[in-house]
Amino acid sequence: MAECHPVGFQWVMEAKARGAKVIHVDPRFTRTSAVADMHVPLRAGSDIAFLGGIVNYILNTDKYFREYVVNYTNGPTILREDFQDTDDLDGVFSGYDAETGTYDTESWGYDGVADLAAAGSRKPAHGGGESEQSQESRAAGHEFGGHGAAIDNAHPRRDDSMQDPRCVFQVLKRHYARYTPEMVQEVCGVPAAQFLEVCEAVTANSGRERTTCWVYSVGWTHHSVGVQYIRGSAIIQLLLGNMGRPGGGILALRGHASIQGSTDIPTLFNLLPGYLPMPSVGGGADHNTLDDYIETVASKTQKGFWTEARSYMVSLLKSYFGEAATPENDFAFDYLPRISGDHGTYRTVMDMLEDKIDGYFLLGQNPAVGSAHGRMQRLGMAHLKWLVVRDLNMIESATFWKDSPEIATGELTTTDIATEVFFFPAASHVEKSGTFTQTQRMLQWHHKAVEPPGDCRSELQFFHQIGLKMKERLAGSTDPRDRPILDLTWDYTVDEHGDPSAEEVLLEINGVHLTGEKAGQPLTLFTEMKADGSTSGGCWIYSGVFKDGVNQSARRKPGQEQSWVAPEWGWAWPANRRTLYNRASADPQGRPWSERKAYVWWDEEQQKWTGHDVPDFPVDKAPSYRPEEGTPGPAGLAGDDPFIMQADGKGWLYAPAGLLDGPMPAHYEPHESPVSNAFYRQQANPTREVYKRKDNYSNPSADEPGADIYPFVFTTYRLTEHHTAGGMSRWLPYLSELQPEFFCEVSPELARERGLEHLGWATIVTSRTAIEARVLVTDRMSPLRIGGKTIHQVGLPYHWGVGGDALTSGDSANDLFGVTLDPNVHIQESKVASCDIQPGRRPTGPDLLRYVAEYRSRAGVTVETGNQLRTSARPEPVTTIAEEN
Amino acid sequence: MVGSTSLSGPLPDPAGDAGWSGAATQPRKGFFTDTSVCIGCKACEVACKEWNAVPEDGLNLLGSSYDNTGALGASTWRHVAFIEQPRQLGHQDPGLAGLPVGPSFSDTANAAGDVALSGDRSQLGTDTTKVSLGTPTVGLPGASDPGQARTDFRWLMSSDVCKHCTHAACLDVCPTGSLFRTEFGTVVVQDEICNGCGYCVPACPYGVIDRRVGDKHATKNVGIAQKCTLCYDRLGAGMTPACAQACPTQSIQFGDVEELRERAATRLATLQGNGIPEARLYGHDPDDGVGGAGAMFLLLDEPEVYGLPPDPVVTTQDLPDMWKKAAMAALTLLAGAAAVFAGGR
Fold it and tell me: Which pTM does this prediction carry?
């Protein structure tokens, strides 16, 4: 966190000054470790073993927060009889289809409850290759950005004693029983004694009087089991009662400013604003009408606020299409494009290579450097007809046609590349107004400080102009396919430089009343949204950010002039609520768990919820309230159902629906790993998305022949001095001089083993490519003992790329990766893989290709290598057991 | 014109000593850099350069941990040092116990850093051989005894800056009056007056001030002596210096020197009470060789470890004595000459 979020880290330092204990779990000793109380080095890619070990410790020592678990989580909920766990099936859950590498998740459900999202749209595809259907089902997990999956009943069977062998609590206990401190040591390389110290610290600091928070950066998501990493910490936090309470939670630190904002109002292919799914076609989920669509968003019979999805969607359509959206035409629902499967970034690049994509917009993104498998990215872009790059600088993705590594190897020739590249200089954040939404879901307004220089323009102006020009082109058209563009509301006030008013856009997002006596007034909250077309709103969760006609995100009342929750600094969605699910900060009767941790509580006298924050609960619903059996929607929430966006009102220790790779995290090795999975026969995530292509080889893993050719683990990361792929830092002298060159970090032990010299050169090789880096030998890296052998890790910052325009350039660490994705969200595994490292510089020109091919040949790599989803049974190992007394 | 200024020893009011009086007088301003909370983000380096338009100082990988700046100089007015040490920090658990690790590498890394620093950097005006740590060197990493485990480790970071000495030798030796004592008690170079004579460079006991080198057409103030101004322009406008403003963890604290000295003492007591007995203050003592610095530090090791001189003395301390001796010598010579003439009569 100190490395990548130094400004936010000030609050950790402040907490530390007040006595907080800071534990840093990371393969490297970083700037965060330097000031932490404890650094826990572990093997990259072993986190679920670590987290599962903590779960096991909590359950074994009875240190869970029983009252919280019984009342607020699905711990007591009974599961279906036909559910089978990884221990029963040697590393996979029930419902696994080895042919397609996917799960039929039906058996994971609650007893007596049909699950909609998974069961409805998931029909296993047959035959070879990836069918449209399986692609569609694979994309499903992406759509749960703001809530759990739909389930078809709010009131599953429970056993509040949590003794029933089929209740979630007992299933969890059995699932993690083998995640002992000894196994953690074996798999993660963390000595059992140190691991237990972490367990003790975390549990001692949780309960009625204290809370612990987990902080992760997006590196945690860059794994083939990334979603399950986050689930792992969620289970710990729910067991310890650390959710919905001050000082608790799971804090996701994003990679850039407003990445939270770009999922809320998404740049993702399968989401509409406010986590409404993108309408789709094919794969058993044809959204022909608004009714079809709404039905898949939330079950009519489930609890919570998602049952109001129609109001959110209609308001969105009214905001898009204004007068043209009427009840008669389904509010122009048909104007929206449909998705037909995975259109994520890596699928798109492969489609480019097949010449299925004509054009591409890159806005503040440098995939030639920042995305996994940079070579595939660059080769893909060379197939485009046109490419628009909007950036502050002439990034490598804009110049790949003349100076990419593939030009040097002869794989690309400038004169043969037909891609027309349009470069538009972009305004920086100080040259335009708008909001940033940070990880706490807080929107903060930034004011334009100076006009953008030269031809630089804001994104707002760029897209406004594109819209105007498209409308101009299509004016007078009678072709129905042009209606969506022609009917789009696009009337923004522009300033003297032609820049549209960002505040007007924010007001449009907030939404307004369209009819009635309040017509024209901004909405105060999404609960005012109507399904009849009488309101508009561009993103329902942001409704209220322009409450009372005031830009609430621009508020900057200093902390010392308001309460410690600081509700008047910026604005947090939803409803300016600073901590989500804060009903859980009070006990089932509505009293604070402790005075020290009082946050919101039930005021018996006034018969309403009150407290330091905006209560995240129907404000007049008494703790004792019990709805009639089967009541849907917000009314279906009982007075002790704090997780109001979950279909059953409970925090999910176990996910009965919504995930595609398991209801609980199980440790799988990374797609490429020199280590065998010590827990199960199944080596890696059996549902990971693999691409068997000649441009996407994988290294052999574990005991596969040739695995020893790539014996080391490498991980990638950022340095404080640079920003991601370098577009904002490698062109700046003041930042470039601070970290002027690409380097690798190795331990003294690895340096000795491979003869690497400090400040000398090293070549790092995978089956994709080889790159070179200067060597930093440092005590901050240390080898680990894994499964009886010493495992070395190589650290690589990923800021550099090959190009001619930046002040500093160098080989790109991300070129080492192939494309292997998490099945839920199509995120690439780019934080861990295996490699070899050798002293000296890499070959250049076509020799580089030969060098990498020779490595592959020695390791026996084919397109099948490492891509077997279900690990076949291993022959019984022949071992000699030495008796110990 | 005021009388002679003091050249050494405690001095409560350097600005007043330099002739500031009346309404112009301000409490003495300075920095307290608490290195125990520094996270090495280098925001101070960047903020300083942005505000003061200090040019880039070379794109050189030094191999000195994460420090690629090297040292203070004409084009580097803030410098964050990174020190990797096989030593425990308080009760910190570095996570090495029980791991299969060999001998430490830190000394080699530091030595290599020193070598890198003493190379081309001299061409850049930031020749740091004068502050070389002189740490012992060992052979190839891990070559000595692979069985020997390292268990302790800590990573120290510290942001260095001009000390704005109570008795500033750079100022005392400046023949043009370019260097002057401000109403805030700080020491500032006026670049339009400096003639680049360079007397100040060897005068500084910390190796802070230097003449800028480079292409005169591309870079401003080439040949002119440059250093931290404690953001004199910002102070005049009631603002905090850029580095302190940018520091996210309040490692760099700006304020009245007198108050900072108290703050430093309190912080020292806290740390020592928390099991870090090696914590110490540097530059806080008015009785030291420069009469106390305007920029003081809380360090976690010997000053030399951070590239700071252990016992800096203002190089002009002995000037009065030297002048006295020179005068006596001159008088003696004159007397001798007179005696010759007298004797020759």
Answer: 0.91
Residue where the block lists tokens 């703790």: A623
CB contact (8 A) between residue B98 and residue A194: yes
* Residue of B36, B37, B41 for testing the chain A interface, max A β-carbons within 10 Å: B41
Tokens of A502: 């960002």
Q: Let me know: does A397 contact A365? Beta carbons within 8 Å.
A: yes
Give me the residue label for tokens 């994509």. A357
In this predicted structure, the answer to whether residue B109 has a pLDDT above a threshold of 70 is no
**Structural contact between residues A374 and A809, judged by C-beta atoms closer than 8 angstroms:** no
Helix (H, G, I), strand (E, B) or coil at A430: helix
Strands of A678-818 (E only): list them.
689-690, 712-717, 743-746, 761-765, 770-777, 784-786, 789-791, 793-797
Q: List pLDDT tens digits, range A169-213.
A: 999 999 999 999 999 999 999 999 999 999 999 999 999 999 999
Using DSSP, state whether A847 is helix, strand or coil.
helix
Would you state the pLDDT for residue B50?
97
- Reported as a single tens digit per residue, the pLDDT across B251-267 is 999 999 999 999 999 99
Contacts of A17 in chain B (CB under 8 A): 37
Strand-strand pairing, B29-34 and A743-746: unpaired
- Mean of per-residue pLDDT scores for chain A: 92
Distance between CA atoms of A789 and A787, rounded to whole angstroms? Answer: 6
Low-confidence ranges of chain A (pLDDT < 70): 114-148, 152-154, 283-284, 874-885
Q: What is the pLDDT of residue B343?
A: 67
Sign of CA dihedral A727, A731, A737, A743: positive
Determine which helix (DSSP H) or strand (DSSP E) holds A387, and give its type and residue range: strand A386-391
CA distance B22 to B16: 9
Residue of B34, B37, B38, B39 best to disrupt the A interface, most CBs of A under 10 A: B39
Distances (CA, A) of B134 to A244, B72, B87, B106: 54, 18, 18, 13
Identity of residue B101: V
Task: List CB contacts of A613: < 8 A, sequence separation 6 or more.
Answer: A565, A567, A577, A578, A579, A582, A599, A600
Q: What is the mean pLDDT of chain B?
A: 86
Which residue of B55, B56, B102 is in closest CB contact with A749? Answer: B102
pLDDT band (50, 70, 90) for residue B74 = very high
Positive or negative, the Cα torsion across A222, A228, A231, A233? negative
The residues, any chain, with a CB within 8 Å of residue A681's CB and separated by 6 or more, are A90, A91, A871, A873, A874
